[in-house]
Specification:
Radius of gyration: 21 Å
Low-confidence stretches: 156-180
Number of helices: 4
Number of strands: 8
CATH architecture of the domain at 6-129: Ribbon
Largest sheet: 8 strands, antiparallel
Order of helices and strands: HEEEEEEEEHHH
CATH class of the domain at 6-129: Mainly Beta
Length: 180
């Protein structure tokens, strides 16, 4: 993949390294339904050990482009640094692991702009939103684990076996059992 964002990435890094906040507009769809596109995010640099599961972070991808995804899991690495496992809310798979040196900043505020309802500001640092984001990360982690378990039990695609599937969706099954 050709790096299409080197200047943007450098600008983001330079602004955040000065201690200033960065305001950017969401353009992608990987964080749907939480971020649908068009929202304005306030991002600031924070210490790596203050990052928690559920936080939205801006990081440098392996293709040197800026990515904003949710932390699903945090692990210490062999060199006593942090490794973050991230994922877009709309994605089924985790991103490649993100080393702490690739993290540029954390989303502190979200400004959702709607032509119908006006504006809404979300303080991602509030206790309520920290808990909500943590729960979202847990759901993503649980969903990924259950998909892996289903794949082991039911085959590579994680589908319900045919016998059980017929019992669940086949209306004839319900008619026969109701007649008993």
């Amino acid at each position: 993949m050709i790096n299409q964002h080197p200047d943007t990435l450098r600008l983001f890094e330079d602004v955040l390294k000065t201690g200033s906040s960065l305001r950017i507009r969401v353009t992608g769809r990987s964080m749907v339904p939480f971020l649908k596109g068009g929202e304005i995010l306030t991002i600031r640099r924070v210490s790596y050990n203050s990052l928690r599961r559920g936080d939205l972070i801006l990081f440098r991808s392996k293709y040197d482009s800026p990515v904003l995804h949710r932390i699903i899991r945090i692990k210490p690495s062999y060199d006593k640094a942090y490794i973050f496992h991230t994922k877009g809310d709309a994605s089924r798979l985790l991103d490649d692991p993100v080393h702490q040196n690739e993290v540029m900043g954390k989303v502190c505020k979200v400004h959702k702009i709607s032509s119908d309802a006006g504006s809404e500001y979300i303080d991602m640092e509030s206790t309520l939103w920290k808990k909500i984001n943590f729960l979202i990360a847990l759901i993503h982690r649980f969903y990924r684990t259950s998909q892996r378990f289903n794949s082991l039990i039911n085959g590579s695609r994680g589908e319900i076996p045919a016998i059980q599937r017929d019992r669940v969706v086949n209306p004839e099954y319900f008619r026969d059992s109701a007649d008993c």
